[in-house]
Amino acid sequence: MEESVRNVLQEIARGSGGITVLTGAGISAESGIPTFRGPEGYWTVGSQVYQPQEMATFWMFTHQPDELWKWYLYRLGICRAAEPNPGHHALVAMEQHFGDRFTLITQNVDGLHLRAGNSPERTYQIHGNINHMRCSMECDGTVYPVPQAVQPKTKDERLTDQDRELLRCPLCGSRTRPHVLLFDESYNEHHYHFYSSLKVARETALLLVVGTAGATNLPNQVASEVHQRGGVIIDVNIETNPFARLAESSGRGFFIQQPSASALPAILTTMSTG
Questions:
Q1: Which pLDDT score is estimated for 65?
Q2: Which helix (H) or strand (E) covers residue 34, if one does?
Q3: 120: buried, middle or exposed (CB in 10 Å: 19+, 13-18, 0-12)?
Q4: Most exposed residue of 22, 41, 57, 81, measured as fewest CB within 10 angstroms of its CB?
């Protein structure tokens, strides 16, 4: 790590400002979870091939709920088979070290940050969590775990009658939907921490952006807020992206072109021992 990066990290670690980490698909790809927009994201229904932007919509749930659930249960199996990597574990240690100064904002729905040990209170899952479901009629704001009896699916497996019964709202009996932000939906505070993420951004001295290319709205707003208020942005990614350019344009930020599984433990060491 360059000395200039170490100096900035140590200066912030000794201060009192907020330390926010924004993670995307890149950190989970290092655990073997394919990126959402990669080949594993596509889904075939009959002879029709759907792209993720077409499949992951409330319109699709309304018209073909079994197919949407099958797709998410297939992805659920991939996520359950994955294990947190050293990058995830470094963020757990970072939260333990900095306590209330630390917030993790993640676009990932795989739940690996929580499985690694980050606390639900300081982990804002702004796109939801694939391990959970909620009433499609919004009869109540409760989020429920997907029942263990509902098994992940292969691409060729259909939902069973038992699956359909288990994937119903315990309160009103309506079908549940995956607790994820779909492409034709908007962020809100109750399910996706919209306002609280922006509030954290206004109090952030250091924003670590890890493994995301900025394809969704709220992460861009968070980074823009930190940038406008003079916070330091450090982007960790294997390829350049808008966050890297934003970080470097500030004059105080950096782009670390490394896998997060190696970069985050090094950043943790620098910040906790400097």
A1: 97
A2: none
A3: exposed
A4: 81
**How many residues does the structure list for the chain?**
274
Active site residue 89: no
Quick one: tokens of 51?
Answer: 């792209």
| pLDDT of res. 38 | 61
Exposed/middle/buried for residue 224 (C-beta within 10 Å: 0-12, 13-18, 19+): middle
Name residue, tokens 């759907």.
Answer: 50
CA angle at 115 for the pair 70 and 239, rounded to the nearest 5°: 80
Reading the block at residue 175, the tokens are 């079908």
Burial of 129 (0-12, 13-18, 19+ CB in 10 A): buried
Q: What is the pLDDT of residues 130-145, one digit of tens each?
A: 999 999 999 999 999 9
Backbone dihedral angles phi then psi of residue 70, each to the nearest 5 degrees: -60, -45
User: Which residue is it, tokens 């009896």?
Assistant: 149
Write down the catalytic residue from 88, 113, 127, 179: 127
Helix axes 260-273, 3-14, angle to 10 degrees: 50
Low-confidence stretches of the chain (pLDDT < 50) are none
Statement: the pTM of the whole predicted model exceeds 0.85:
yes
In terms of Cα–Cα distance, which of 125, 80, 131, 119 is closest to 106? 125
**% of the chain surpassing 90 pLDDT:** 87
